[in-house]
Description:
Blueprint: E1 5-18, E2 21-34, E3 38-42, H1 49-57, E4 65-66, E5 71-74, E6 77-78, H2 84-94, E7 95-98, H3 102-105, H4 112-121, H5 132-145, H6 151-156, H7 164-176, E8 182-186, H8 194-211, E9 214-219, H9 222-228, E10 231-236, E11 239-244, H10 246-251, H11 256-263, E12 312-315, E13 318-320
Amino acid sequence: xxxxxxxxxxxxxxxxxxxxxxxxxxxxxxxxxxxxxxxxxxxxxxxxxxxxxxxxxxxxxxxxxxxxxxxxxxxxxxxxxxxxxxxxxxxxxxxxxxxxxxxxxxxxxxxxxxxxxxxxxxxxxxxxxxxxxxxxxxxxxxxxxxxxxxxxxxxxxxxxxxxxxxxxxxxxxxxxxxxxxxxxxxxxxxxxxxxxxxxxxxxxxxxxxxxxxxxxxxxxxxxxxxxxxxxxxxxxxxxxxxxxxxxxxxxxxxxxxxxxxxxxxxxxxxxxxxxxxxxxxxxxxxxxxxxxxxxxxxxxxxxxxxxxxxxxxxxxxxxxxxxxxxx
Length: 327
């Protein structure tokens, strides 16, 4: 792929300060996004997907987190070394995030129009003499694009006057209301029915093609990742365990966790109950010293407990972090 690198995360560690010490959530995450690329990030709940993305925008709980190691490069600049003003510019003009929970993402005391309008106002578009009436037109246009009925009414409504699914679509409208180089979509279809979810996915794909916007799609659904992403990252307990194109990943999964995820998909055409993965993610207060999947892995060996395996390429653009491939 010839596109320039837009975002690159290198060896990122993120710890949360909790009662009893530090919860070591991320352990050496490496992640890459190119301009105009659709990247999927899949894994169980609690594996660090959202923490990774919030680290990019520096919106982790203030005072409660610690980044002992790692770098986050956006257009060649290290986000972790940016000033507050530079971070503000990054949030308002470069990267948009669609949050999983619209209830906490929207301010209950401002109308939908005010909140979408503020996003437009503080984006690059505002510098191009976008006045109040133009902001209103652009806000209503964004509401229409996410298939909300009666956009003029929605524009003057407050969040509590809308259903959960409608609020989710408002969050998506905010993200696409002004030009961005990267959209981070954290389970954008969570509150939506399947037909609207499909329309939203088509809309996001259209934005990639039309605006050359890159998208990071955080999802629990391997099916959605397969349809939406150009490349997929599989995350387990704060580590990237495998990455490949959807075609390669579904045809030739290598990491035991990736195989377990695929085996957990319900078989709607019959053939028995999905196998699932026994056990649970490790305690982040006292994580395993080696591979974090070792306690749930049926193929564990002594080396797995010695040190964390590193990602290495087993074929072109197919990387795996597992000692099994080296035996």
